[in-house]
Amino acid sequence: MAKSDPNRILRRLPIVVGGLGAVLLLINRLLTPDITDSQARADVLGVILSGVLILTGLLWQQVQPQLPDAVELIGEEGFVLAPDLPERIKIELAWASHLLLTNTVTRSLVVFYQGQVLLRRGILSTKSEVTIGPILKRVLETQKPVYLVNLKVYPGKIEFDYLPENTQGIICQPIGNKGVLILGANAPRSYTKQDENWIAGIADKLAVTLGEVMGNE
């Protein structure tokens, strides 16, 4: 179910106040039999102020960014680690996933490394296996991230069936040359450039730790 924009009322407030002020000025003018010079000047100022408020509201509609509609992802919340992982890896994965889920718009994430799923956390799909499709293959080969800003417009979204079925946006961030950090958001176009930099930094940290501990396996 989509969530409403919390700033919607704030953006419309100047238009409502300006329009109400203009209506009240008109009513007052119609009901006043004799208009004095001072009242005429006050009416002019009131009309100008109402016009400024309405114009401000219209500008706010265009200038202030509206938050994209968010949905409740379909699935159960969980935290699943691959069996027999070294304790250091478990701690690193738990730390990294907690930061991503609490500091970005990520609601579901998967760590795929050396052909196996090391971690699934957040809202989980019923499918746990990761099948490498064209998008994931490109990320592994080029070691460059891919950001699908609005998943429903991409035909290739079917390869991400291990994420909740109504995931709205996805980032596939390489973990060195052996893995991918896959993050799902509950709203389209919701990752900022700062989020992308943050995700890249955490993926680089994971690459170092995973390479040191699992590099010789």
Q: Helical residue percent?
A: 40-55%
Q: Strands of the biggest beta sheet: in what spatial order?
A: 1-3-2-6-5-4
| Assembly level | single chain
Largest beta-sheet characterization:
6 strands, antiparallel
**Radius of gyration from the CA trace?**
26 Å
Please tally the helical runs, counting DSSP H or I stretches of 4 or more residues. Answer: 5
Going by helix content, strand content and strand pairing, the class is: alpha+beta
Taken in chain order, the helices and strands follow as HHEHEEHEEEH
Q: Give the integer mean of the pLDDT values.
A: 85
Indicate the proportion of strand residues: 15-25%
End-to-end CA span: 45 Å
Q: Unreliable segments (pLDDT under 50, ≥5 consecutive)?
A: none
Shape: rod-shaped
Number of strands: 6
Describe the structure.
The protein is built from five helices and six strands; from the N terminus they run ααβαββαβββα. It is an alpha+beta fold and 217 residues long. Helix 1 runs antiparallel to helix 2 and helix 3 (87-103) runs antiparallel to helix 5 (193-214). The model has no long low-confidence stretch (mean pLDDT 85).
